[in-house]
Amino acid sequence: MTVPATRGTDGRPAERRRRTDPRPGVVRIAAVGDFHCGEEDVGKYREQFARVNDDADVLLLAGDLTRRGTPPEIKVVLGELADVRIPILAVLGNHDHESGRVEEAKALLRSREGLHLLDDEPFELNEHVGIAGVKGFMGGFGRWTLTAFGEADTKAFVGTTIEEAQRLEFALRRLATPVRVVLLHYSPTLDTVIGEPETIHAFLGNDRLAEPIDRFGASVVFHGHAHHGTFRGKTAGGVPVFNVSLSLVRQEGVGEMYYVYEVAVPEDAPREAPATMEPAPATSGAPESA
After folding, report:
1. pLDDT in tens, 47-60
2. 30, 20, 22: which is closest to 260 by C-alpha?
3. Rg (Cα) of the chain, in Å, rounded?
4. Distance CA 118, CA 87 (A)
5. pLDDT by residue (tens digit) across 77-91?
6. Which CATH code of 3.60.21.10, 3.40.50.720, 3.30.460.80, 3.20.20.70 fits the domain covering 2-264?
7. Where are the domains of the chain?
């Protein structure tokens, strides 16, 4: 059974296939972020999320699930996801940290059977496809990347940026699957934040995140945070990156509640041994001038 709706890997219209009629050699990934549930949003998204059971094999949530990250808001999120039967993989966003009750929020999310927080560890969907994810952080892109130079506060800020990139690297190293998918909240490329005011680009992500993505040959990246950015971009190494903020998904007409991306799975692709856990040296040199 097919009905017209979602879009394929190039962002153009494609057939929406029921989960009972999947294409062979393909894993369908639904992804969305920034739906910002408040306590008054009970029932707002439940029916739309329930449709993912027919549309995809896994649901990725790219952070900012709530407005302030309070336990009552997390309970609303869990209610909206109540009818989802496929695996749900999630990272938190900056809004989910706002109330300072992150551990409570994580505990509630972990209590939901079938929901896996990628900040804890990567997830192998099957023998071919694995998903790694972290929240990520700010820092900027290219020649405008903030460096660890000057005040201790600046060095601490850049240290958080580097730490998140290293955590993503460790997660990717642990995956033995031939296909690796990355889920973030912050963007790893300038491409998908273009459209936001240039003055805030540095606060929407950083391209230090792209280094492990390219080095480990990820197949695709999904992130949120930049509500008014660009839907599709790529890393310097050519890995496709999708900004799946809910407002942008709807604006681009690529989905009502989530974007569905199809990942080709080579049938003869062998599993790999996980890489060693020795991190690559982090680069955070001082700027040419200050």
Report:
1. 999 999 999 999 99
2. 30
3. 18
4. 12
5. 999 999 999 999 999
6. 3.60.21.10
7. 2-264
